[in-house]
Amino acid sequence: MKKYWQIAKGRMQENTAYSAWYWAGTVSAVMKLLIIYFFWQAVYANQTTIENINLETMITYIVIAMLLQGFVGGVGNELAENIKEGQVAIELMRPYDMIFKMFAVDIGEKIMYLIQGTLPMVLIAYFFMDLSFPKSPETILLFIVSALVGIWIGTFFDFLVGVLAFWTVNVWGVRVLKESLITFFSGALVPITLFPDWLRTITEFLPFQAMVYLPVSIYSGLISGTEAYMALGIQLFWLVSLYVLVRVIWSQAIKQITIFGG
Fold it and tell me: For a disulfide at 125, which of 19, 38, 60, 131, Cβ 3.0-4.6 Å?
């Protein structure tokens, strides 16, 4: 475990070495937050609720969804580059599990995003946008667990997309498609309850709502009580299913590797 933590620390140190990139990321995150805030202010200018969701709840939902969406990516792009450049053959000979190594790199990235992107946005949202917090400790605990599960679901899904580089020349198009699907079907743009019935039904059979919509709905109170626990059960199902899929597909993928001279 110690070696994976050192890998994560290495990635954090690497990110902090580029101060211009660090501040550009922070400013970009804050600008995005302000754009979304004023957009929803304009939407609610002539109405008090949309599908029984008032402005305060909507702003809270959108802000938390935006924060959480920043964590549901992974190291799929870096994995694809390693595969494309042949670096993966060297990685497999090193004394660690490459899947865990990639996850450690991802954790380092996300800790830095928490510091440079999330915390500034939380402070701005709290002081200037009336961001509300859950009222009960139970809801806070459920949200934290649900958010962590959602982040890992997104991490596993991104890893699976990266593994496709074993069979394709370039996964760029697939990654663009993945980002589009997650942004739309995860509920990061609008709550899924605003979707038409037929689209909402399709969404319920996909893993994307487990990444953002379910934890954010628990936070904002759109889901509560027994429904919140059922939502967590759905997330755990996708978490286990995707992890098993990661292991199965990875075991098949590394059979594609041929090492000369080793």
Answer: 131
Q: Which pTM does this prediction carry?
A: 0.88
CA-to-CA separations, 235 to 142, 206, 241, in angstroms, rounded? 12, 11, 10
The closest alpha carbon to 38, from 133, 132, 129, belongs to: 129
Cα–Cα distance, 195 to 92 (Å, whole number): 44
Quick check: helix, strand or coil at residue 53? strand
Encoded amino acid at 137, one letter:
P
pLDDT in tens, the chain (262 residues): 788 888 888 888 887 776 676 677 778 878 888 888 889 889 898 888 888 888 888 989 998 998 898 888 778 888 888 888 888 888 888 888 888 999 999 999 899 888 877 888 888 888 888 788 888 999 999 999 999 999 999 999 999 998 888 888 778 888 888 888 988 999 888 889 889 999 999 998 999 999 999 999 999 888 888 999 999 999 999 999 999 999 999 998 888 776 665 4
User: 210 φ, ψ to 5°?
Assistant: -75, -15
